[in-house]
Amino acid sequence: MNAPFNDLELVTIRTPDDLSGSPVMRYLALMLDEAMQQDGSFKATAKGNLPGKLVKKASELLPGFAVAEFETEPSISAYVGSNEDNFNALRYTRMLADLAGIIYLRKGRFHIKKAAQKQYQIHGINAFFLPMLEAATTQFIWNYMDGFDDDVDLRPFWLFMLWRLQSHDSIEQMIEEVCVAFPMLLRQFPPHEYYTPEKYLGICIKARFIKRFLEFWGFITINPRGFSGNEPLSGKVSKQPLLTQTFHFMVK
To answer: Is residue 148 within 8 Å of residue 231, measured between CB atoms?
Structure first.
């Protein structure tokens, strides 16, 4: 659980050949292409966000993603937005790119680091898959985009959750297994008027791990009709090719 990303045991993490099904990697490619067309940088908004032209291009990519089957309400979709602030998947990607040392904001412009430009020219977007994934699992603050009243860090458990989910596809069973394997985790949640620690944990896992990690990366999709509010009913995930192409566990 505490091993550095490059020293993880009993799992092999590979870069898939085709990343076109990953929203995160497609959005990153848009940013890199925009910068490369302008000598390595492009103008940010006055607020320091991605420009409207790039946001529009990113919104137009949704039909090509597996998750598009369920993203039928553009006004609440995480994969469409009129600006970066209301486009969660794009904002998440931009923050990961910053954490991974690929892009940075300076004097009103987003710059691509020289080393990253060279990598992109030689190896394409695949060069950044593992650095972005490492940033997502070790540096990005998972509760940044939600309003839950806790500061529980689920990142140390991401590989365990992925291992269990990949073996049986059931969110509910995976949550139960987390509770059994890590009972001390439940004690970290503050008292809640409506939810037990187990239910609170399940809500956080669905939001932070399922929706804003696995789906944003294109690893899985879930049918929202399998959920009623915050209460999972069926809780089954549909594994996408990127998941099995990326992660291979050597333990059953």
So the answer is: no
Looking at residue 83, what DSSP letter applies?
S
Longest dimension (CA), the chain: 55
CB 67 within 8 Å of CB 79: yes
Measured distance CA(59)–CA(57) in Å, rounded:
5
The pTM of the full predicted model, rounded to 2 decimals, is 0.94
What residue segments make up the domains of the chain, in order of their start? 16-138, 155-249
Distance, CA of 62 to CA of 202 (rounded, Å): 27
**Mean pLDDT of residues grouped by 10 in the chain (252 residues)?**
86 96 98 97 97 97 95 88 96 98 97 97 97 97 86 94 95 96 92 87 94 97 67 73 96 78
Q: What is d(CA 93, CA 58) in angstroms, rounded to the nearest whole number?
A: 11
Closest CA to 130 of 8, 252, 2, 1: 8
Amino acid at 48: G
Classified as helix, coil or strand, 12 is: strand
